[in-house]
Design goal:
It is an enzyme of class 4 (lyase). This is Orotidine 5'-phosphate decarboxylase. By secondary structure, the protein is of the alpha/beta class. It is built from ten helices and eight strands. The chain has one domain: Aldolase class I (TIM Barrel). The chain is globular and about 40 Å long.
Length: 235
């Protein structure tokens, strides 16, 4: 299978402080990368206009803003986001917020992703936040809620991806952050996997930020990850 068929599987997180730096990174990555994540850091530095430009250039954009607010606010925010041409947008996996987001999306092509449990959190963090039970139990409960609400996919760590497929079914996307090539530092991520491990667990899209954008040769690292994805899929 040609490597170009794998490009949609890799989402590069442009977790950079300025639009100028993000634009430079996109130029460095060239045609090898077609899918980018624009998160909160870049969104508040002019990232929405930048995201629209990426769409105009034929790129796909994952707007990672993790919405959570009263129903009316979430619904109307998603109505506006749906007009921007984004491919994915994240909503925290609270049932009312997800239902409001689905109502706001309507018939638009935007795909809504439910954020289950952040990959920077482990069970001690959940306990400190007042949640009982394991990470896996909470992810599973939120994945089921996402399916019931009519969401298009979920965001979870690679550790939970295999079990979540049985919950969300074949029609929903599973997007996994916390991807680290073998030997790469984990940073603040606590539930991580290599690209091959995430694909083997059933992930549809892998979000990779710092291992690519902080590399001396970002394009080389992206190509290596794409090759690993291709190999994992072919097995």
């Amino acid at each position: 299978m040609p490597i170009l068929d794998m490009r949609d599987k890799l989402i590069v997180g442009l977790d950079l402080p300025t639009v100028a730096e993000a634009e430079a990174m996109v130029a460095r990555l060239g045609d090898d990368v077609v899918f980018y994540k624009v998160g909160l850091q870049l969104t508040f530095a002019g990232g929405l206009d930048f995201a629209r430009r990426l769409v105009d250039q034929g790129k796909k954009v994952f707007l990672d803003v993790k919405l959570l607010d009263i129903d009316n606010t979430v619904q109307h925010a998603v109505e506006n986001i749906a007009r921007l041409g984004m491919t994915f947008c994240t909503i925290h996996a609270y049932p009312k917020a997800m239902r409001a987001a689905v109502a706001g999306k309507g018939e638009a092509g935007l795909r809504l992703l439910a954020v289950t449990v952040l990959t920077s959190m482990d069970e001690a963090d959940l306990a400190a936040a007042g949640f009982a039970g394991s990470v896996g139990e909470l992810v599973a409960r939120r994945a089921a809620d996402a399916r019931a609400a009519g969401m298009d996919g979920i965001v979870c760590s690679p550790e939970e991806a295999r079990a979540m497929r049985a919950i969300v079914g074949a029609g929903m996307s599973i997007v996994t952050p916390g991807i680290r090539p073998r030997g790469a530092p984990t940073g603040d991520q606590k539930r991580v996997a290599t690209p091959a491990e995430a694909i083997a667990a059933g992930a549809d899209h892998l979000v990779v930020g710092r291992p690519i954008i902080a590399a001396a040769d970002p394009r080389g690292v992206a190509r290596s990850i794409l090759s690993e994805i291709e190999l994992a899929i072919s097995k």
